[in-house]
Amino acid sequence: MDPEGSLTQDDPHVKVMMTGSTLRKVKSRMWKRQRHFRLLEDGLTIWYKSRWAGKGHSTFTEVEAVREGHQSEVLLSIAQEFPAELCFTLVFHGRQGNLDLVADSPEEAQAWIQGVRKLIHKAQTMDEKERLDQWVLDWFQKADKNKDGKMNFKEVRKLLKMMNVEMNEDHALHLFTMADMSESGSLEIEEFVQFYKMLTQRDEIWKVFQDYSGDGEKLMLEELENFLTIAQQEGEQSAQHAPELIERYEPSETAKKQGAMSFDGFQMYLCSQEGSIFKPQHRELHQDMSQPLSHYFISSSHNTYLMEDQLRGHSSLEAYIQALKRGCRCVEVDCWDGNDGEPIVYHGHTLTSKILFRDIISTLKEYAFKVSDFPVILSLENHCGVEQQTVMAQHLSQILGDTLLTTQLDEQVPQELPSPQELKGKILLKAKKIGGLEECLDDTLTDEVSDEEEIANNDDDEDPPAENHNAKTSKSKLSRELSDLVVYCKSVHFHGFEHARLHAKCYEMSSFSESKAKRLAKEADFVQYNTRQLSRIYPSGLRTDSSNYNPQEMWNVGCQIVALNFQTAGLEMDLNDGLFRQNGCCGYVLKPDFMRDGNTQFSPEKPEERQGYKPLRLSIQVISGQQLPKVNQKEGSIVDPLVRVEIYGVPQDQNKEETSHINNNGFNPVWNESLNFVIHTPELALVRFVVEDYDKASRNDFMGQFTLPFTCIQAGYRHIHLLSKDGTPIPPSSLFVNISISEFT
């Protein structure tokens, strides 16, 4: 078994990495320390040693990309001292900070850059089996303390503890003896793989297999079709799907020739993406993208420039890159006058650090369309005087060029907003504007915005008072150049639903703080208002810790731009990630039809009153868990896992149920418990699976979660591949469930 394959072993770049290099780790202009870095034998883990701490390591599978040259703020700040060809940056998945490194020679830098790229490619292209083999190999190497390539029973006992398994000694010894074919009293790697297979034998999958297999050895084509029709609720497509599954997942050529599936193939199918809870076709871009912008939920970030809290946090270009990588399509910029005529961005009247407006726009230009082609809205909170507003307008035009939308798509005054499809590859500026799209701007129009419109962006009834609030009484000057760049997203003050119905233009939009939005959500008109106009919701100014509000309440009334602090992990970002995981992660999700009709009477408070009301029953049998992550890294500690299923949606659908906890088994706990729910508005519901380590004395510890829209759930026997608190995968941790969805009568 050689998971690394010849590619990595014989590659000259990888050889340099395995030998190791002394590289400078750079944290700031002042902080530059030499560290020894090398790639471990598993070909996946980079290990580095500091003179002081003794050791440290970073795992390779978490590295997402490597950037060459001065491609981070830190490396740019030392560009004078170290030329670009010595510098590179490792970027990690999730919210882990980047690692900025400087090599001694361009050749060494290239060896690491090319080597890391090859290993990332390898990690991305591994199939399920290789990934599992790699995982087993990793454990073997961790447990083989004396590095003799063998493992005695004592080492195996220790390993089981590391793997979260509490097992009675006799049973462990029995498995060990069976795997020790050479009867040498220790296991070599092949024997250890056998031991691991026996240890991880999935009896619960074997039972399902037996239920549908005539001879208990294999599933003939007809039996597999039967399984897909009855258990997986696939209906007519089973006949077409069954041979495809055999072709894709059956490892045995003999079984393939018979048109049959062995137990190994069956288990591989159930553990694959196709056997996961998420409908594969919904992962792809599959929705109609030609409707007005107001008909979509749009993934949106608040105070995008912040990496941490709102008072002393670090402002960074990296925060924009992270948000855009997560599929965010509306980013925010807080602009203030800079000392040398250059506008700066930071959280005003606080100690957060400052960045240049033009640098953010350059970053936006580079990263806006890396994960999605659909439009990005740049929400501008403008605190600058006229002169620096004009500088901002120049930067926007010069840096973004054609990418910035500066004119209407056609000559007519729009009756509805253009679609994401029509705006592909465009950046839209959301800010105040002098006049509207109707007037051909003549000189009689004033360059002043009344104080009423002035507070459009600052409808923040809870922000701590800024120092110059009395300035609001006067008229505020707006730069004509900046105003002219605003087309479909003109910020206006909200005068109530009745006023909007009679007078508002589709391109006018308002921002609401979470508390104001909550008050408005009690009025049925909000859903109707949101069919035609965009609403932006943002967290209360009192959330100085960058915590988030629950976005579901705002989606329930059709608000499109529900801005969250992307830098803060937790339930609210899990819901955001869950909603936008569908439709190709493009950052736009089409609202249900009853939220797009201008005459809609839908109210989340009374779901039963809408036309076409069809509640559904969701029944989830939580069968088992696989290789759940350790919460406490102490060698002897083993978890007591429980599973909770939480439903988020209209008020009647908010619900949660949990299983009992299993003592001392994070490796292969079996619950076999059913949790039942009634869903009144399936189109708006999100389902969140959470695994926790039970603790009777204090709060349970979070272990992993997965959130998805109810409409994306596949019924039947499914695996749920868990994510960390950060939203990154933690293979091979999963839950095995059986899901049934039926009409509620």
Brief digest:
The protein has 745 residues and is α+β, with helices and mostly antiparallel strands.
Question: Layout of helices and strands, plus pairs?
Answer:
Layout: H1 5-10, H2 12-19, E1 21-26, E2 32-39, E3 45-49, E4 56-59, E5 63-68, H3 73-77, E6 87-92, E7 99-102, H4 106-125, H5 128-143, E8 150-152, H6 153-162, H7 169-179, E9 186-188, H8 189-199, H9 203-212, E10 218-220, H10 221-230, H11 238-249, H12 253-258, E11 260-262, H13 263-271, H14 280-283, E12 296-301, H15 317-325, E13 330-336, E14 344-345, E15 355-356, H16 357-367, E16 376-382, H17 386-400, E17 427-430, E18 448-449, H18 451-454, E19 476-477, H19 480-483, E20 490-491, H20 497-503, E21 508-513, H21 514-521, H22 525-532, E22 535-538, H23 552-555, E23 561-564, H24 571-579, E24 588-590, E25 616-626, E26 641-648, E27 655-658, E28 670-679, E29 686-693, E30 701-709, E31 716-723, E32 729-743
Parallel strand pairs: 12-23, 13-16, 16-17, 20-21, 21-22, 22-23
Antiparallel strand pairs: 1-2, 1-7, 2-3, 3-4, 5-6, 6-7, 8-9, 10-11, 12-24, 13-14, 14-15, 18-19, 25-28, 25-32, 26-27, 26-29, 29-30, 31-32
Helix pairs in contact: 2-4, 5-6, 5-8, 7-8, 10-11, 11-13, 15-16, 16-17
Active site: 302, 347
GO cellular component, one term: endoplasmic reticulum
Domain PH: 15-121
